[in-house]
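Morning run. Coffee first, then this:
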Amino acid sequence: MQNTLIKGQTVFITGASSGIGEASAEQFAGLGVNLIITARRFDKLKSLAEKLSSKHGVKCIPIELDVQNNDEVEAVFKNLEKEGIFASILLNNAGLALAMDKVQEAKISNWDTMIDTNIKGLLYVTRAALPYMIKKNQGHIINIGSVAAHDCYPGGNVYCATKHAVRSLTKSLRLDLIGTAIRVTEVDPGAVETEFSEVRLNDKSKAKKVYEGFQPLVAEDIADAIIYCATRPQHVNVSDIVIYPQAQASIRDIHRT
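And here it is:
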């Protein structure tokens, strides 16, 4: 039943070169969904596209894209329109955290990158994708948020603020799109072992310690939740899912052995 609901559709994924984006591409492809995978690291995208096309027999288009650049985003969607390619599922996955500095000690450039990626990038891609969805009265926007959208923690200031913004934007989108057949979902992961902490801390050894002493989530766990949301019957809209590893009780409380 699940396969037939989205088989043959096309999903547009940002941040698809690794982690949750890559795992989601794998699982969508396994259901016969065609892919438009985007990220800044084109070599990784190209390799992933070739693998998924060969393995699952789906069409997979790799596109180098920096979601912080609205001109690039608009150009990508205009080119897809010219080729008659319509993405009925949008997975806004691109996002990052940089450093753990207090506000009074932080680098402004880190703030700019987080805001430009996590908030403005999501808005740029959503704004570019929506006209086609509205025209066809078909679509599903899935935003990857975070448990940081529900609380705050020391050193999380601007990152938490961006994810609170994503939560507000997701709710607002649902209001703006009422009366259409477009669904809007937010998936908020807790501790997931991906490149996230490595990027944030700019140190592989420190990043490994973040996940020591407990079993964190992995990218495939979040992809599984994304697929669940995307494969519900049309009249069902999963508004949001919060996912913790079993050892995590809140944004700040993790039991470590």
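The radius of gyration is 18 Å. Good start to the day.
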